[in-house]
Specification:
The protein is α+β, with helices and mostly antiparallel strands and 212 residues long. 25% of the residues lie in helices and 21% in strands. It has six helices and twelve strands. Strands 4-5-1-12 form a four-stranded antiparallel sheet. Strands 2-3 form a two-stranded antiparallel ribbon. The longest helix is centred in the C-terminal third of the chain and has 16 residues, at 190-205.
Length: 212
């Protein structure tokens, strides 16, 4: 990763697009949710599909693991959703070891998360959400201490798991992508997104990076 980053930085002086690519940290992404704003109608079906797939809610209020918001890169909106970074900052320092990488690159947050929020603080892209614990029970019996109780975390971390935390999904694609009726949503690696944006720029303006 460091070697690739050094190579990218060497292009920054002559390529403003590359500078933005590095500044946004897109080179780290292995599964970036990119929305083609030439096709997107802001219908929010990507968000609704996420809610339907996971069934996350708190006191009857649906909870999504993505936001149709974020920064633009070319004609694409880089949505607020886990990027499955090559070196996940979020996995550093969890005091109860409740966050790890799954076999399909997804980030998995286990039920024993204590809601400390360290993973959310460590994610430089704001892609981990602290949400009300679905159990939301303030006190439960403590099996280690007779007649005593312990507190259950009132918050827990949640993030995109690519609809495949357990190796099962109702669609061959993550629901944020499969639910889009306009084929505006895609999951791409950082290099793939850079290639698409560069090709579109060149088609419109020619190969001069400063014209973008």
């Amino acid at each position: 990763v460091e070697q690739s980053l050094r190579s990218l930085r060497s292009d920054i002086q002559v390529n403003p697009l590359m500078a933005e690519y590095v500044e946004q940290g897109l080179y780290e992404g292995q599964s970036i949710l990119a929305l083609d704003m030439d096709l997107c109608t802001r219908c929010d079906e990507c968000t609704k599909g996420c809610i339907r797939e996971h069934g996350d809610e708190s006191h009857g209020v649906p909870i999504t693991r993505l936001l149709r918001d974020g920064r633009h890169f070319g004609d694409y909106l880089v949505a607020v959703s886990c990027r499955s970074c090559t070196d996940p900052h979020c996995m550093s320092g969890c005091p109860v070891d409740s966050i790890h990488r799954g076999k399909h690159l997804q980030i998995v947050i286990e039920d024993h998360c204590i809601g400390c929020g360290l993973c959310a603080l460590n994610c430089p892209y704001g892609n981990i959400f602290m949400v009300p614990n679905q159990r939301h029970i303030v006190k439960v019996p403590d099996p280690n201490r007779p007649r005593a109780t312990k507190r259950i975390a009132q918050l827990k971390a949640a993030t995109c798991d690519l609809c495949d935390a357990e190796g099962n999904r109702s669609s061959p694609k993550p629901m944020c992508v499969a639910s889009c009726p306009h084929e505006a949503a895609s999951r791409m690696t950082g290099p793939e997104l850079l290639k698409v944006v560069t090709q579109r720029r060149d088609q419109r303006f020619g190969p001069d990076p400063s014209a973008f």
